[in-house]
Design a protein that fits this description.
It comes from Calcidiscus leptoporus. GO terms for molecular function: ATP binding; homoserine kinase activity. Pathway: Amino-acid biosynthesis; L-threonine biosynthesis; L-threonine from L-aspartate: step 4/5. Helix 2 (105-116) packs parallel to helix 3. The protein is built from ten helices and eleven strands. By secondary structure, the chain is an alpha+beta fold. Strands 1, 2, 3, 4, 5, 6 and 11 form a seven-stranded mixed beta sheet that branches. A four-stranded antiparallel beta sheet has the order 8-9-7-10. The chain folds into two domains: 40-206 and 355-363, Ribosomal Protein S5, domain 2, CATH 3.30.230; 212-351, 2-Layer Sandwich (Alpha-Beta Plaits), CATH 3.30.70.890. Strand 8 and strand 9 (306-311) form a beta hairpin. 43% of the residues are buried.
């Protein structure tokens, strides 16, 4: 079985205008737009400033390679405003290493969207406040991609709260990345399963059990997503495919029916994690997390962050007592200790899933809120 067939194979770079529909190819569209929508857009005052909040995300969840992910309650905030000259300011995570020029991913995606929709590109000031660590397997590049595309749509006069525009945003983001496991939860929040069907990216939300917590061990060292993908084989066996299909199905059932205990089996993987062990020794950390009481654990995205699932103790609300937090801290201490024993430095963070994704506010030149 060849890995990466269909929508998930290598993609050539392309302008969004390649997605424009032709009469013989109606499925490839830049998004649904009715006559009424166009009239409403014509009434809207030009956007002077847009403020965006995009969550971190964890992808794969073990067996759901390139197709499953959920949002985390860790956020990047991006403010984009018309200016007399280009400026890019970054504070927080990645401030010392992320590009501050017009080659920055957010700036590039904003420009690409505006140009592809036939609009002039205004001079903009980007101000980024980042809580999502870059190149750690927490969806930082997807958050930046979504922020840039969303800013471009906003300055093109699009209401980012519209279901049609959010769907368009997903199509653009998923086509840019080649998969939607991070961008779908970044846009819609929650646990999303993403498929590509005849050129369309389609997502479906899965329920997240009450009381679920995420314990993340985040190594200090970064891991290149490109290198992590390059080490994967071109083909996998039927045995490995069956292994993952069965566990992915069980994983969805566990979340949908709030069953925590089977997650230690449902979050196992045979398609990608074992090929990345030479880059980062994460397997002992997963083992020690499970022994400390985690329900399941996996390599978050391409790594190197390891995420362990805890919670489900007593009543659903995590903040109603200290038991859930106490047990999550026990797991976090075990993960940090396991990493230190292997000479790996890093920090732990306890998060909860975010049921909401991209949040935005559009403001006109008079300070009036447009949406």
């Amino acid at each position: 079985m060849r890995r990466g067939a269909g929508c998930f194979g290598p993609r050539r770079a392309r302008a969004f205008s390649d997605l424009t529909a032709t009469p013989k190819d109606p499925k490839l569209t830049t998004g649904f737009s009715s006559r009424i929508s166009k009239v409403v857009e014509s009434f809207q005052a030009p956007v002077e400033k847009v403020v965006l909040k995009v969550p971190a995300s964890t992808a794969n969840l073990g067996p759901g390679f390139d197709s499953m992910g959920f949002a985390l309650d860790v956020w990047n905030r991006v403010s984009v405003q018309r200016s007399d000259k280009f400026r890019m300011t970054i504070s927080g995570e990645g401030a010392d290493r992320i590009e501050l020029t017009e080659d920055n991913l957010i700036a590039r995606m904003t420009k690409k969207t505006l140009e592809s929709l036939g609009n002039e590109v205004p001079t903009l000031h980007f101000d980024c406040q980042n809580a999502v660590p870059p190149t750690r397997g927490m969806g930082s590049s997807s958050a930046a991609l979504v922020a840039g595309l969303a800013a471009g749509l906003a300055f093109s006069g699009k209401d980012l709260t519209s279901p049609a525009i959010k769907k368009l945003l997903l199509q653009l983001a998923a086509n840019e990345e080649g998969h939607a496991d991070n961008v779908a939860p970044a846009i819609y929040g929650g646990f999303q399963i993403a498929i590509c069907n005849d050129g369309h990216w389609i997502t479906q939300r899965v329920s997240i059990p009450d009381g679920l917590q995420c314990v993340l061990f985040i190594p200090d060292d970064e891991m290149s997503t490109k290198e992590a993908r390059a080490c994967l084989p071109e083909k996998i066996s039927y045995a490995d495919a069956i292994y993952n299909i069965s566990r992915a199905a069980m994983l969805v059932n566990c979340f949908a029916t709030s069953q925590f205990d089977p997650l230690r089996m449902a979050m196992e993987d045979a398609m990608h994690q074992k090929y990345r062990t030479h880059m980062f020794p994460f397997e002992p950390i997963i083992k020690d997390a499970l022994e400390a009481g985690a329900h399941g654990a996996f390599l978050s995205g391409a790594g190197p962050t390891v995420l362990a699932i805890t919670g489900g103790v007593g009543i659903g609300d995590v903040g109603s007592d200290t038991m859930s937090q106490f047990l999550a801290e026990v797991v976090s201490e075990a993960m940090v200790r396991s990493a230190m024993q292997r000479g790996i430095s890093g920090t732990a963070h306890i998060a909860i899933p975010s049921l909401t994704g991209l949040a935005s506010t559009g403001i006109d030149v008079n300070g009036e809120i447009l949406w």
